[in-house]
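INFO  loader      accepted 1 record
INFO  loader      residues=165
INFO  predictor   begin
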Amino acid sequence: MHHFFTTESTAPPVIPLLWYGVMVLLILMAVWASLRYYQNEQFRKIFRNLQIFQLICLYIWYFAFQLPWSNSLPLYHCRLAMFAVVFLPDKWKTKQYFALMGASGAVFALGYPVFDPYDFPHITSFSFLIGHYALLVNSLVYLMNHYDKTLLKKYRIIAYTFVLN
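INFO  predictor   done
INFO  writer      dumping tokens
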């Protein structure tokens, strides 16, 4: 388990083609499950609680080992989307924006994963995977249940994105 919890940086792990294929298949399965079960309360609770658990574990890891803010920066786009989709009230413009960004951003992050510089398997790699899959599901479930095309105009999406960046 020392290898799993090490704080000694190496290089980002290389992902073999088989495991990359599994990751892409899991994206498709997450989208399918979200589209099929978005109205199922238990399904929603499982992924919401998984996201909360992942965030708690991640921040415990960062604070316990006093990792630099450059590694644990809470302002990554996906991390902000995770907090927004889980904690903001429904039907807010900001939550809808982050759900849109979370769904697309999770696909991009999982399609071209850049893990923290620790040998795989490592807690940060699992956190990356669990966090982005849960974000994808939570974002899609929110959008399927609460998307309101009148809530966000194109100019507002562009403005939010510029401000965020």
